[in-house]
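pasting for the record
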Amino acid sequence: FSRFDLILITEKMTCTIVSFTVQKQLRIMGKNVFWAKVLTCLALLIVSIVYVLVSPEGQGKEHVIGSVFTKLRGAGVSCRNHSLKSWQLDECAASNNLRIWDVIDESREPNSFFIPTNYLETKNQTQRPEGWPEDPDAPTTGPLSTFPCRSDADCLPHRFSQSRNGAVTGTCNTEIERCNIFGWGPVQLIADNKRIQQQDFATQMPMAANYTVFIKEALRFPRFNKTAKIAPDIVPSQTCLWEADNRCPIFQVSTLLKAAGIQDISEVVACGAIIAIQINYDCNLNRAKTLCKRTFNVTRLDDATNTCSSSSGYNFRFSRYANGGTVSRDLYKVYGLRFVFDVQGTARKRSGTAALVTFGSLLGYWNFVSLLLSWFVFECLVPHHKDKRYEIICSGADEETQKRGGKVSCATSPEPIHAMEAST
């Protein structure tokens, strides 16, 4: 650096350290300035009012409380002749082995429904004093284990202990080397359960994909004291489907499966699946008739990577009892598709409190008016007065320096100025 550069840098650093900035008011008069100010303020006021009236932020909000009502239509056909395949229904009908599952057989819970796709039937179970043999394939460790044995002496210490399918009798079945049990028998076998999971087994019902479900929702907004029933008043026809017309409240199961990433029901027919249908509502309560827009999000909840494992599919058991002198029952383990509904959403309605809060938050933008007007006035209306916005005053300078006005070069002493002149 030259001596002149060092003097200049020292001057600027000194001025920065010892300087003090205060506000300066500059009043500009004129019709153009007046109209620019009026139009800018009016435009921002109109935008603020429109935003408060139209924007959701200017309206009161409430989360929806809703429930779903469904009606199923369809029938499942299976075959009791296990030597046939699921598609050989003509042969099954000829041998009088058809088993029909209609909508009465389906299980319905609040905000959910179930469609069977496969089942294991154990007929004519009874209870008898001598007990029943346990499942020979059942494990001998864990919470659902059985007791291994070679003689009755191995079972007596465990008498009345919990086994997989009942309570231990104290006697040993030496053929399968398992302790017998008190309970309902013959017991359901693990081998039979694995057998019905084979592809195209007779008990499987792929026609479950053709079921249709009518979905009707009821919504409640306690804060606004409003109720809405979300079902189109005018359905195009009783045979409409949502896939072709989103006004239609009737869904085909195959459409729901594809939305959940299941391209064909053969992927889940053996062991079932759990499907979540999330319905989101955006309701506008500002009109005489409540207007709600709904969107559907379908997701598979169970593990899709492990087919027929403990973490995948869905199943439950139920029984049908008969009393013909001896009480008996038919036990069913049913696999299928469980659809669960999750209702979410918000409702909007104009509210004076929400409008005032939103309008108050917009007042911060009025500072932008001053910046915009300042730029417009000095750039467009009075560009020749731009330098008057800033003025530098040097405290302790001589009289000649004080008279330089807004373009003063502040220095701590006169020597640097003389040095600058000399170098010039």
